[in-house]
């Protein structure tokens, strides 16, 4: 089975992605298609509040499927700017569109150079093979 | 330390069908084919089939087969005519449940067959044999777990679908068992299941499982859907909702006092006659977002610890978080406000009497 792994994202080994806007100093964060497939039907998402400061690899909340609970980690340091409130009411968005409508949150005040510690799409693809 | 997992007869068939696998009770079993939600809905709305070959089978035959089984299970085995089955519990001398099981008086009048849960077959086989020696009874006990595969066909359409293959299945009463032929294979067919829906369980020879599996048209379902379906009904999962080592419970505490017949003599009876449970098995429904899970603490509305969650999920049918667990009897009344502690947060909920989802058949 092959999974979508967009080239314009960086990845954590724990299956979170970050899509960085270097000019704005922001990044959008979500979980990979592989992660949603492993978890199965996602039924609950817990995320930090806006303005909360997050460290790279720090805890970013929890995603629960019918069968499992999984901690989320942050690909980058930054401050939570926006949370995708729609996933609270429709957590299945993470299953249906993990890189689009199923995004989790946006960080600002990021340090884009931290992406050096993340996996490229190619490296991530090798990891989940 | 990795122990070799026991394989069901259709392992390869499930893999080809795209199943993801899980280890359960020492067996490698399919957890999910399409998705738990899809499979769950298939069983509630139409039909699903499960390979439940991880369930054990023990045969007890001979002049004292009924006495041995009567003294080792809590229900009244002598009430069973050939072709009858009953839900029951196996307790030890403390009245603690070792397992729950279904006991059948075989339709061919060839003794009893009972069905232990996954991973309990060896233990119960030894339990039967050692007590046969101790009480000097005359019967044979055989662990035939890997001689019988088991397929559960469940859902409102199961009578029509199974009836199309086995004409007599339509007339089979709840908890009855009969000898049938499916796709040329001699099987036992019982009207039982663990989903709350109408359904059948087919016991067939291990080597002919494929023919029987293919003969019944229905959504293949894994253990994931089996779990959400049984939680919606408030049915116990052996090893999780009770366990003689980690969570010792009497049948009364576990909410299945209806399978205890104290007019019969069985191991643990004298303790159970005088037992007053301090805790009771209950259903919990959260009124806030969150998913109750095994091991989470339950508190009263004022923050006093009153119990523990043993099973939980987001109900696929109802769309609300539901759980099962034990709370002190003075907080067990349906409607009592409680809190479940989820990652240090207290989520509000209510005690509910299962089934959360109403079954289509009387249990």
Automatic annotation (TrEMBL), chain A:
BP terms from Gene Ontology: glycine decarboxylation via glycine cleavage system; protein lipoylation
PROSITE patterns assigned: BIOTINYL_LIPOYL (PS50968), LIPOYL (PS00189)
UniProt entry keywords in alphabetical sequence: Lipoyl
Residues the record lists as N6-lipoyllysine modifications: 67
Residues making up the signal peptide according to the UniProt record: none
One cellular component term from this protein's GO annotations in UniProt: glycine cleavage complex
Keyword Nucleotide-binding: no
Domain of life from the UniProt record: Archaea
Family: Belongs to the GcvH family.
PANTHER family: GLYCINE CLEAVAGE SYSTEM H PROTEIN (PTHR11715), GLYCINE CLEAVAGE SYSTEM H PROTEIN-RELATED (PTHR11715:SF3)
Record text on subunit structure and interactions: The glycine cleavage system is composed of four proteins: P, T, L and H.
Function recorded in the entry: The glycine cleavage system catalyzes the degradation of glycine. The H protein shuttles the methylamine group of glycine from the P protein to the T protein.
Protein known as: Probable glycine cleavage system H protein
Organism lineage string: Archaea, Methanobacteriati, Methanobacteriota, Stenosarchaea group, Halobacteria
From TrEMBL, chain B:
Assigned EC number: 2.1.2.10
Binding residue positions for substrate: 201
Keyword set includes Transferase: yes
Enzyme class at the top of the EC tree: transferase
Any one GO CC term of the record: glycine cleavage complex
Family label: Belongs to the GcvT family.
A GO BP entry: glycine decarboxylation via glycine cleavage system
Domain spans labelled GCVT N-terminal: 12-263
Higher taxonomy: Archaea, Methanobacteriati, Methanobacteriota, Stenosarchaea group, Halobacteria
Protein name: Probable aminomethyltransferase
Example GO molecular function: transaminase activity
Self-association and partners: The glycine cleavage system is composed of four proteins: P, T, L and H.
Catalyses which reaction(s): N(6)-[(R)-S(8)-aminomethyldihydrolipoyl]-L-lysyl-[protein] + (6S)-5,6,7,8-tetrahydrofolate = N(6)-[(R)-dihydrolipoyl]-L-lysyl-[protein] + (6R)-5,10-methylene-5,6,7,8-tetrahydrofolate + NH4(+)
Keyword Membrane found: no
Function: The glycine cleavage system catalyzes the degradation of glycine.
Domain Aminomethyltransferase C-terminal: 280-356
Keywords on record: Aminotransferase, Transferase
């Amino acid at each position: 089975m092959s999974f979508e792994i967009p080239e314009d994202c960086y990845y954590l080994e724990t299956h979170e992605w970050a899509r960085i806007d270097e000019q704005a100093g922001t990044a959008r964060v979500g979980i990979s298609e592989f992660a949603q497939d492993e978890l199965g039907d996602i039924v609950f998402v817990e995320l930090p509040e806006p303005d909360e400061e997050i460290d790279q690899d720090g805890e970013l909340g929890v995603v629960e499927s019918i069968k499992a609970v999984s901690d989320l980690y942050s690909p980058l340091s930054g401050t939570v700017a926006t949370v995708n409130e729609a996933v609270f009411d429709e957590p299945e968005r993470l299953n249906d569109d993990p890189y689009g409508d199923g995004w989790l949150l946006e960080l600002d005040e990021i340090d884009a150079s931290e992406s050096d510690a993340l996996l490229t799409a190619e490296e991530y693809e090798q990891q989940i093979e | 330390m990795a122990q070799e997992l026991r394989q069901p007869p259709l392992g390869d068939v499930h893999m080809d069908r795209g199943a993801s696998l899980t280890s359960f009770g020492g067996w490698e079993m399919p957890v999910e084919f399409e998705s738990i939600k899809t499979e769950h809905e298939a069983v509630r709305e139409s039909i699903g089939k499960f390979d439940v070959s991880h369930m054990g089978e023990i045969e007890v035959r001979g002049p004292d087969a009924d006495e041995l089984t009567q003294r080792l299970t809590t229900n009244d085995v002598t009430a069973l005519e050939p072709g009858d089955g009953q839900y029951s519990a196996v307790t030890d001398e403390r009245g603690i449940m070792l397992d729950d099981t279904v006991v059948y008086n075989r339709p061919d009048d060839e003794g009893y067959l009972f069905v232990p849960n996954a991973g309990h077959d060896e233990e119960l086989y030894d339990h039967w044999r050692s007590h046969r020696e101790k009480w000097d009874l005359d019967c044979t006990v055989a662990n035939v777990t890997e001689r019988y595969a088991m397929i559960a066909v469940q859902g409102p359409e199961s009578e029509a679908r199974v009836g199309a293959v086995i004409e007599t299945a339509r007339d089979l009463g709840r908890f009855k068992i009969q000898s049938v032929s499916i796709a040329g294979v001699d099987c036992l067919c019982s009207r039982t299941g663990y989903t709350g829906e109408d359904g059948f369980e087919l016991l067939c020879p291990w080597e002919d499982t494929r023919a029987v599996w293919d003969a019944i048209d229905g959504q293949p379902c894994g253990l994931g859907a089996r779990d959400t379906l049984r939680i919606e009904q408030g049915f116990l999962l052996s090893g999780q909702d009770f366990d003689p080592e980690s969570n010792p419970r009497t049948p009364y505490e576990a909410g299945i006092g209806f399978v205890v017949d104290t007019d019969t003599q069985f191991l643990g009876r004298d303790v159970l006659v005088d037992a007053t449970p301090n805790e009771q098995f209950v259903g919990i429904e959260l009124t806030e977002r969150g998913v109750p899970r095994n091991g989470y603490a339950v508190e009263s509305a004022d923050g006093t610890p009153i119990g523990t969650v043993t099973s939980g999920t987001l109900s696929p049918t109802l769309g609300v978080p539901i759980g099962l667990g034990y709370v002190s009897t003075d907080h067990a009344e349906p409607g009592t406000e409680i809190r479940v502690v989820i990652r240090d947060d207290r989520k509000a909920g209510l005690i509910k009497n299962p089934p959360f989802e109403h079954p289509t058949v009387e249990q």
